[in-house]
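User:
I study polymers; will you set down one protein's sequence and backbone structure tokens?

Assistant:
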Amino acid sequence: MKLPGHDAMARGADEHLVTSRVKLPRRIVERPLRQVAKRVMMALGVLALTVLIVWSDRTGYHDNSDNSVDFLDSVYYATVTLSTTGYGEIVPYSAGARLTNVLLVTPLRVLFLIILVGTTLEVLTERTREEWRLNRWRLRLREHTVIVGFGTKGRSAIQTLTATGLKKEQVIVVDPSTKVIEAANAEGYVGVIGDATRSDVLIRAEVQKARQIVIATQRDDTAVLVALTARQLNRGAKIVAAVREEENAPLLRQSGADAVITSASAAGRLLGLSVLSPSAGTVMEDLIQQGSGLDLIERPVTKAEVGRSVRETDDLVVSVLRGHRLIGYDDPAASPLQLTDRVITIVRASNVQPLNTSE
């Protein structure tokens, strides 16, 4: 099998050496380091205010070592007081100093502890919340779509699927690069960091419950391994894969892919068509781009169309899918249409209805 250039998926797995894990789209915008820095500044502010209070009323305090309280003693007293250590070398002995401790220092001590303990609790709460979200996500996930590779081909595949009604919550992106998964999270997709040729990574993506799998890797051998692993985990899922070299397409089909797209050959044919007929090339590109101009869709035959010829339908029918047989529009066997048929038609993008993924 021909092995083209270095694959981004394999390279990312070697460079980052990250443990495979699921990353849900983030709901918190503020960065964790910024949150911690803010808490530290608040704690230092409370400490500085306490030092200022003690220093301003230093005559009401008694130091057991030298009977006087200087600025360093004030810092020391504020530190051990706020941290609830309280060694007892410096104590307030005047009525004013004790009242200040009751009304000001004690509330500041409580505030200081809330800031420090609150930071720890927030981290633990965030972890618990993330685990809860992840468990709930796993329980609710059914009939989803797994996209292996979030490059140009993977992004285009997702855009086409979401344009026809697939919800972002039903898409899982698998990629070994942390930055790529963060980009997918930013767009609202769940991501799994790891090498998709490994079964444990695909299991984290719940591929065993997936309805369809799109393989959009950069190397053909990687695509073959992913297809083999995915088919082993899920016998009923629809697997669509892209390869660079046409000679590798049969091997990918043997590995379990239901449909194989040769990206290099398809681009070359479109280039050749555009040279021979720029207008025809424009029409083909319009059909490929989902959501604008003309769209190529597959839909079931309506009851009103049953018994009619393919030319009598409202849409422009190009093929009829009868069972596992694909029949051209000009084939006499295509007409009349049957209720169990599905037709592939060309329609205006504004007339495209969202697909029912439960079909």
The radius of gyration is 33 Å.
